[in-house]
Amino acid sequence: MMVDLGEGDVDLKVPAGSYRCNFASDAGEVTRSGITCDDAAAAVLDVQVGRGDITVTAATL
Q: pTM (2 decimals)?
């Protein structure tokens, strides 16, 4: 998954598991919960925000 946003908050809910994570916010916080960042994972989360927070959490049923 790829998200590239100039301004605003990103709140992603993804299945629990391992991901190749590339998170960057020039002016904001990055928070993740319930996922594992692993450079060897097949699934990719690439989230770039110019100004805003990034929150990535594992989805629950």
A: 0.91
